[in-house]
């Protein structure tokens, strides 16, 4: 696997090794030893994954920006197994030098790219194709009282969503009333 740093410390783009031939392809979607070794080499904390989640979204569905507050903060290792998304992580760690900055990346079944988002980030994505399946591992269990959200189109954050690739943006009622950053 190849690990790429982003402009925000701790956010990582992961390119798995994919082995293909005329029969198809094979890849390790997760290997704890290799993941821990890569994080150790970058002097980053090692997560303990406790839950896997899987969602299905139609083109234009925007989920987020969601986070869990301490002590129920969640790190997420995310990927797409069908379809395509624009995935965004926003640094909401008040003590961070990149507080309020964001990174966006396209994840798809085709590129097989994964995104490591540690605790202290708000996360969201927009589905760019129908029947997009999104998988993610979390480092903590969901806790309703610790759930938080930021409105997806907050002008202060100025996230560059690829809205030209969708006809309509479909947002849940709860996400429509999320507070600003």
Automatic annotation (TrEMBL):
Q: CDD domains, from UniProt?
A: cupin_RmlC
User: Which InterPro entries does the record cross-reference, listed alphabetically?
Assistant: RmlC-like (IPR000888), RmlC-like_jellyroll (IPR014710), RmlC_Cupin_sf (IPR011051)
Q: What is its EC number?
A: 5.1.3.13
Site location (Participates in a stacking interaction with the thymidine ring of dTDP-4-oxo-6-deoxyglucose): 142
Q: Name one Pfam family in it.
A: dTDP_sugar_isom
From the UniProt record, list the reaction(s) this protein catalyses. dTDP-4-dehydro-6-deoxy-alpha-D-glucose = dTDP-4-dehydro-beta-L-rhamnose
Is Isomerase one of the keywords UniProt gives this record? yes
Q: Which GO terms describe its molecular function?
A: dTDP-4-dehydrorhamnose 3,5-epimerase activity
Gene Ontology biological-process annotations: dTDP-rhamnose biosynthetic process; polysaccharide biosynthetic process
Q: Where are the active-site residues found?
A: 66 (proton acceptor), 136 (proton donor)
**Keywords, alphabetical:** Isomerase
Self-association state and partner proteins as the record states: Homodimer.
PANTHER family with a match to the protein in the record:
DTDP-6-DEOXY-D-GLUCOSE-3,5 EPIMERASE (PTHR21047), THYMIDINE DIPHOSPHO-4-KETO-RHAMNOSE 3,5-EPIMERASE (PTHR21047:SF2)
Q: Which family does it belong to?
A: Belongs to the dTDP-4-dehydrorhamnose 3,5-epimerase family.
Task: Please explain the role this protein plays, according to its UniProt record.
Answer: Catalyzes the epimerization of the C3' and C5'positions of dTDP-6-deoxy-D-xylo-4-hexulose, forming dTDP-6-deoxy-L-lyxo-4-hexulose.
Q: Which protein is depicted? A: dTDP-4-dehydrorhamnose 3,5-epimerase
Q: Which organism is it from?
A: Acinetobacter shaoyimingii
